[in-house]
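Exam prep: given the inputs below (a chain plus (2S)-amino(hydroxy)ethanoic acid), describe the expected output before reading on.
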Amino acid sequence: MTVTDRLAEIADIGRDAERGGYSRHLLDATDASLRDWFRRSASALGLAVEEDGDANLWAWWGAPGDGAVATGSHLDSVPGGGAYDGPLGIAAAFEAVAQLQAEGFTPPRPVAVCAFAEEEGSRFGLPCLGTRLLTGAVEPAAALVRADAAGLTLEDAWRASGRDVAAVGPDPDRVARLAAFIELHVEQGRDLEDRGIPVSTASAIIPHGRWRLEITGEGNHAGTTTMDQRADPVVAAARAVLAVQEAARARPPARGTIGKVQVVPGGTNVIASRVVAWLDLRADHDEDVRALFDAVLAGARAGVEAEGCTLVVHEESFTSRVDFDAALTARVAAALRPEFGAVPSIPTGAGHDAGILSSVVPTAMLFVRNPTGVSHAPGEGARDADCEAGARALAATLRELAGAA
Ligand code: HGY
Ligand code: MN
Ligand code: MN
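Solution:
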């Protein structure tokens, strides 16, 4: 098989006819099908699959044990996401194992292929939910009360799927077995395309915070309420959006986004009573994100008050900067050298489970060139030949890391 063949097997799961691309979310209708594919792919390679208490899947090549080398990514997507963000890392991992098996390699160390739960946070609002729970970066009680857009809590969704709520939480014994974790991922920018290079390692993930802004005004009639009588939260939200743009542009290379807005009640002839807007801020260092947030908040608050509305802000997540393990990354780069020469090590503005895991195990990443540079949208891309190059790079990495006892 090839990586492309493997991705083709899930190409029809979770297509989003309205948004385009894929909408695949934890414990939704697509989740079981994607997990079935994972199990089938693993079993075809003779790997034994287990699901941990946090809904993360582990496919073991060799008996689970100490000194394990794990690789993998996630199967969930953003709403209307691309085909590669997440699944490429899993398809490439299975393909890398297949290649190593075909060459007769038997790893002295156990190798695990992982699929981590809800990396995007698109359903329950917390990115890297599965690895945060696994590593203890979030308390189970704090995660289980989170609700999706329909108001269903993670706890209720968990129970409805037949999973055990009591099993949710850190698994230090499982984490302690790991000697290294490698995540292969489509690049979410054009750096490698511009350099003309198919694969690279990663140097760092910049920090990232997400907040929920609740702007309350006064619901009223669109025809009878004169313009001077309004407390319109949609206008206040528009001012907040501009405050985000202004604050982020004033602090390059910071990034500020409001990509999700709910207008309540949402009628053409209704002045809304409430707007909920979700804010995503990123910058080079944790303190830069905090300073950007302060500037956004000051600007948004002024705009909201100018419209006679009120603002309440909730922090939904904060993910600190990660600098990947330099020694492990150098080892990965050395393993890639025979085929790929000297590959660059590049930073990314996107979050990854590898970032969460880096707090408990030496971690590195591989990026595969993306010709469009687009991600979190249907235009995300990776050439077939580059996906196969990624699998060969991952196989070389596993041969190196799992090959030494
Ligand atoms: O970067 C993100 O928003 C996500 O964690 N992939
Ligand atoms: Mn993503
Ligand atoms: Mn991803």
